[in-house]
Design a protein that fits this description.
CATH architecture: Roll
Low-confidence stretches: none
Radius of gyration: 21 Å
Number of strands: 10
Shape: extended
Mean pLDDT: 86
Length: 152
């Protein structure tokens, strides 16, 4: 057998995406099937300078963060998510704003990376259709409006 190259020893494989945990204001929530929406975008304002015809200046605008989408299997514990959504429906938005963390783990269950989100509140709750002909898990989708997300 040949020698291992030093290059192979320093290889950094990408993280797996199936081992994650969602924590909202210190409460670990289990049963999430999917998390999406960890994205942000900065607006670009173009400015045409008088007398300069070669290019347009691109100026930095406001940065916005996408809504987070959490899909989870409906359980007895999911009542807390429904109650959180009800705070918004009842107009208690200040009470509804919460922070949280999405953590990613490797195949061995060891922490790898996380994203913290701030001032999130549930803006949409969707319960998937039920079917007497199926045998799938009952799933809800909770959409969170977030003010900012920070990669840790």
């Amino acid at each position: 057998m040949g020698k291992k190259s030093k290059k192979a020893d320093n290889r950094k494989d990408p993280f797996v995406n199936f081992a994650f945990r969602v924590e909202i204001d210190g409460i670990e929530m289990y049963g999430f099937q999917e998390v999406s929406g960890l994205s942000n975008q900065t607006d670009i304002y173009e400015y045409q300078e008088g007398g300069e015809n070669q290019y347009t200046h691109k100026l930095v605008g406001q940065t916005t963060f996408s809504n987070l989408i959490l899909k989870y299997g409906i359980t007895v514990d999911s009542k807390s998510l429904t109650a959180w959504r009800k705070l918004v429906i009842d107009g208690d938005i200040n009470e509804a704003k919460k922070g949280g963390t999405i953590s990613l783990f490797n195949k061995k269950g060891e922490y790898q990376k996380s994203w913290s989100f701030y001032n999130a509140w549930p803006c949409k709750l969707d319960v998937e259709a039920f079917s007497s002909m199926g045998n799938a898990i009952a799933v809800s989708t909770l959409e969170l409006a977030v003010e900012s997300v920070e990669e840790n």
